[in-house]
Amino acid sequence: MENETYKNLLEKFLRGEATPKEIELLDERMNDHPDGDFDSISRSIWGDGTIMSHNLPDEGQKEKMKNNLLNRINAEEDFMRSVRVNRKREFLHAFSLAASILVVAMSVVFLILGDRQIHEYEVVAERGQKSSVTLPDGSHVWLNSASRITYTSDFNKKNRNITLEGEAYFDVAKNKKIPFVVNASEMSITAVGTEFNVRNYSDEDEVCTTLVEGKVIASTLGCDISLTYGQEAVLNRNSGEMSFAVVSDLNHMVPWRSNEMLLDGESLDNLSRILSRMYNVDVYFENDSIKTYTYTGLIRNNSLQNVLELVSNTSPVAYGIYDDKIVFTTK
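Structure (tokenized):
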């Protein structure tokens, strides 16, 4: 029964739902239990699908999880004393410990400072990771790999402005008085209460907004596009033009949220950049001609091995894996 309570507390913390008292209780439980208990419980959480992730945490990540949690109280005290809140955090797969710690720490500083100073908060999902955070207004944000959002301490007071680099899914809390605005390079997306995905990777030619629920307005240089369910706004970085599109498969509008990968004529060159972000690997080619092969299909379990097998089985391309490097060669 005690271990079951331990597991429930850990699950709530990983989802960002634990109360301060529950976090303190979990802190005590982790100090009272040996590493083996944490190992078995964390494996059961990742293994049974409670927390969405495509990889089980390795030893280094589990140690980082424990350290993040056990240092939470000290982190809060440090933030209270120094009032320095622009801190980068590493995040684990799906709903990360660091995201929860960052939210708690920032909320403490926010209450102390009020309107006297403006500080910038940053939430990061590094390569090979995903993360989730709850914003001060109650909105939820899920970050894909190699992504970051920033916002200031007047968020939910004077504005609800977010800057995004990379890709994120937003579930926006309703507030008709203060619109929720995502700034993604030259595109801005305005919503009141809705769910949508924004993709804004600097190494891609397009910025794309996909509406899942509600209504948003995508804007750029005087051009506004109002979106409803299943519609997209796509901004071409090179031409500066924004166009309207309809999602081709409504069942897979945001595949990365379900650990899926949807390829629609994707070149191996573009696919290599996706793989690099998703799995924190470096990709090399035997020659440039290999980069032009294209791929179409839905990979439901987007493990690295599955993606590489698709590439190899549908084109004259072979691959080799060497530690954190992938090399594509001609068969």
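Confidence is low (pLDDT under 50) at residues 45-57, 72-115. Helices lie at 2-14, 20-32, 35-47, 59-70, 72-82, 97-113, 268-279, 304-314.
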